[in-house]
Design goal:
Elements lengths: L2 E3 L5 E6 L4 H12 L5 E7 L3 H12 L4 E4 L7 E6 L13 E2 L4 H11 L6 E4 L10 H9 L2 E5 H4 L1 E9 L5 E3 L5 H12 L5 E4 L7 H8 L4 E4 L2 E4 L9 E2 L4 H13 L3 E9 L6 H8 L3 E10 L2 E9 L7 E2 L11 H10 L4 E3 L12 H11 L4 E4 L2 E4 L8 E3 L5 H13 L4 E3 L12 H7 L6
Parallel strand pairs: 2-15, 3-14, 6-7, 10-11, 18-19, 22-23
Antiparallel strand pairs: 1-23, 3-5, 4-5, 7-9, 8-9, 11-13, 12-13, 15-17, 16-17, 19-21, 20-21
The chain binds shikimate-3-phosphate (S3P).
Length: 436
């Protein structure tokens, strides 16, 4: 059912960021492959994507228990490791739902095993590029086939035996990097990856905590085949979910929000840098370390924003936040130009086309470019009815737009927010923003 959001008089209070999606996937997958003990994972992401990972691991014979978190805390899970070679052949097809991270990381886990597996997902996932993982995994010796000349899901993993690789990554992608590092764990010989730019490093951090022999030299990663030791993970709050509230607060005329427990890993914190460049009143409080990941509370207040240019190495560090940065850029003083973000075209939707479509519909001067967008700035966001093209981050960006727009905004397909943030609309309701 559609939801309609209108600007509440003020936006004040506290929010606890839900568990990080990227860290949650990894905590389950890596501990499932460990050969020692049972791991405890707390503050697990409530989103449907991470549940897809849990269900796939269960189908492969991994024992996982899940308990609801109390008092707003995320769920607690236990995962019993089966060892690097202990996964069992599933009786059915593995369904990754909407999750690109599940598909690409599981590809590295399933490649070159003596079990046959089929991995697929929803319509959006089935149109996303998988050749980027199939090609290097095949070069390592895996036997994989897929639709469209082995570039699209469903992917079928038949077997093969893996040898290490020396691979120059064509794109700064944490999913691709993690896929190849996971394959490298079981390969014969060393795996060396050269990255074109830094991308989120949760895999590297968790691998190090699990005893993997992984060296980093500049942008190169060198991995020796290694066993994984179980590690308990307290998942930090998701900066990508917190980003919606950061933008809502800096854009609203009467706002002060404290967002608690936000992961601020430097390879994810591009949104903080970008908003500070825009002149946002944003302060990090109580910076601390949680299970090898830096965390802080983030205080955000009404701000007088200015347009900025975003390109180059910062782009992979805020790639998921660009749809909501566009909301702030629409009203900021002066032009914002986003370049080097062609990856946005192959996310859960074409996020350049989808963002420009609703922005223009709401009266915002903005145009798409092949690798980004240009927003004139200084606009008032008007109202209207918009769809998210089944993209959770688009749906939530529309929700944020509704909190600051001059007229109500109706989101025609809001349920998709549950992919990463099921309580998103309820929080908007608590702020008094939900009017229909
Ligand atoms: C993710 C990596 C990013 C990001 C995605 C989650 C991850 O994708 O967009 O939401 O958990 O590794 P790419 O690495 O393909 O850019």
């Amino acid at each position: 059912m559609p939801v309609t959001i209108a600007r509440p008089r003020s936006l004040r209070g506290e929010i606890i960021a839900p568990g990080d999606k990227s860290v949650s996937h990894r905590a389950i997958m890596f501990n499932a492959l460990s050969n020692t003990d049972t791991a405890h994972v707390t503050n697990f992401s409530p989103g449907a994507d991470c549940t897809s990972t849990v269900e796939i691991m269960r189908s492969l014979g991994v024992e996982i228990t899940r308990k609801d978190g109390e008092n707003g805390a995320g769920d607690s899970l236990t995962v019993k490791g089966v060892g690097l070679n202990g996964l069992q052949e599933p009786s059915g097809i593995l369904d990754a739902g909407n999750s690109g991270t599940t598909t690409r990381l599981m590809s590295g886990i399933l490649a070159g095993r003596d079990i046959m597996t089929i991995l697929t997902g929803d319509d959006s996932l089935s149109s996303r590029p998988m050749g980027r993982v199939v090609k290097p995994l095949t070069a390592m010796g895996a036997e994989i086939s897929g639709r469209a000349n082995d570039t699209l899901a469903p992917l079928v993993f038949h077997g093969g035996s893996l040898t290490g690789t020396n691979y120059e990554m064509p794109v700064a992608s944490a999913q691709l990097k993690s896929c190849l590092l996971l394959a490298g764990l079981r390969a014969d010989g060393v795996t060396t990856l050269t990255q074109p730019a830094e991308s989120r490093d949760h895999t590297e951090r968790m691998f190090s905590a699990m005893g993997v022999n992984l060296q980093k030299n500049g942008l190169d990663l060198v991995l020796e085949p290694s066993e994984l030791e179980t590690v308990d993970v307290e998942v930090p709050g998701d900066i990508s979910s917190a980003a919606f509230w950061m933008v809502a607060a800096i854009c609203h005329p009467d706002a002060e929000l404290l967002i608690r427990n936000v992961g601020i890993n430097p390879t994810r914190a591009g949104i903080i840098t970008a908003l500070q460049m825009m002149n946002a009143d944003l302060t990090l409080i109580d910076e601390r370390d949680v299970a090898g990941e830096p965390v802080a509370d983030v205080l955000v207040k009404t701000s007088q924003l200015k347009g900025i240019e975003l390109d180059g190495d910062i782009v992979p560090l805020l790639i998921d936040e660009i749809p909501v940065i566009a909301v702030a850029a629409a009203i900021a003083d002066g032009e914002t130009v986003i370049r080097d973000a062609e990856e946005l075209r192959v996310k859960e939707s074409d996020r350049i086309a989808a963002s420009i479509s609703w922005l223009n519909g709401a009266g915002v001067e903005a145009e798409g470019t092949p690798d980004g967008m240009i927003l004139a700035g200084g606009n008032t966001i008007g109202g209207g009815q918009f769809q998210s093209y089944d993209d959770h981050r688009l749906a939530m960006s529309l929700g944020v737009a509704g909190l600051i727009s001059s007229e109500p905004i109706t989101v025609l397909d809001p349920d998709v927010a549950g992919i990463s943030y099921p309580s998103f609309w309820k929080i908007i309701e608590e702020f008094g923003g939900l009017v229909g």
